[in-house]
Amino acid sequence: MTIKSFPENFLWGAATAANQVEGAWNEDGKGASLADAMVAGSHTTPRRITLDIDESKYYYPAHKAVDHYHRYKEDIRLFAELGLKVYRLSISWARIYPNGSDEQPNEEGLKFYEEVFKELKKYNIEPLVTIFHNEMPLNLVSEIGGWSNRKCIDYYVNFATTIMERYKDYVKYWIPVNEINDLTTGVGNWNHGGILNEGTQFFQDQKDDPNKRYAALHNQFVASARIVKKGHEINPEFKFGTMICHITVYPLTPHPEDVLLTQQEDQLRNCMSGDVQVKGKYPYYAWRYFERNNIEFEYTEEDLKEIAEGHCDFYTFSYYMTNCITNQKDAAQVSGNIMGGAKNPYLTATEWDWQIDPVGLRYTLNHVYDRYGVPIMITENGLGARDKFEDGKIHDDYRIDYYRKHIEQMRLAIDDGVDLVGYTPWTAIDVISCSTGEMAKRYGFIYVDADDNGNGTYDRYKKDSFEWYKKVIESNGEVLD
Ligand code: BGP
To answer: How much is the pTM?
Structure first.
């Protein structure tokens, strides 16, 4: 029996996020966002957070990022050459509402994205817009404590409504919140929740208040549901997707304790947010978790009704790694995106210690499709690696190998019966890393000549993976050599 092919209208794409790609942090009326307050770091140096931005003292990589704001035409032309059918991008909230609470939106900011969408339309590239991707106006962080304050729901819904109305003829696919489940871990406080607890100095070592954190998550669930409902009124054609940072977990051993712990970890980190956003209600284990851990946050019956009514149309997730869970205290550890775990003896890891697991992607696709039964999109997947730039060439065969193995597993999952409709690997073009702020941790199909300190020409070069992915798209996933 032959293996099923990718469906004919499969959405091959690639992704970026505004704060990691645009730069122009204080141009044309844009306000500072929380991403602009993060100092550069590395795998071994944590990123400092400074509410008062002081460029004379620190280097803030988001201020210039890869200068996409000034080079978007050139970049989109390259995306078209790559053959992208869909491009996942995010809209900077602070470019539209500089303080978050402004009465009127910033017209120059709105115009910028309109031009971006026009340019994408010219090349027949479908935009997939993340409304909130790890950045909010810094003012909302200091003034109201970010998402932990219910006022944030109204500010965000106002922002989302502005852009949904303005771009209703350009954009059909929306993601209300990037990796919403990051708020189930302490590391989510800052860039997902806009929460800076007293004593927090570094992104990698944040003080945590679970009550505030889960309040923020709840407020995002309500906000997301509200805009799904509003969006469907603005344009009934709109489709809304979740975005879950899926850290797939395996028991390290068949010991029943390890299996049980793995189930609990999976429920809380991966499943809870998808359950709320797709099934429209908090699952039983979430209430029990809050109770057992004395977690209290404000919610109303009306909130739960809104959540039930504003559920997402499709399910998307990011997939970079899998981790193991065990109750053995001395098990070797690996790091990861929002959380690390026990080291899997059967997997290798990247230089940044993220385990590579293509088969785990097939497993995950089946896991989530079985649970939700709605169309699935993988909205992030990719390899952060150091690239060697020689005579304008970048021979990134390791990235090709990574993608080939993951795409093979996607096809097998389709053959299993999973309704996988799209793939937007991270990233279309090199961007600054979210966790470390480095340029050296590169993900793109397109190389940007810039280093960790902002030196370089910022010129663009096609990597070998660019030519390879182009053929993958042209052949609808048939040619992977
Ligand atoms: C995801 C974020 C992205 C991106 C990616 C890679 O969690 O949504 O913004 O950065 O991880 O992470 P990093 O840049 O830290 O390597």
So the answer is: 0.97
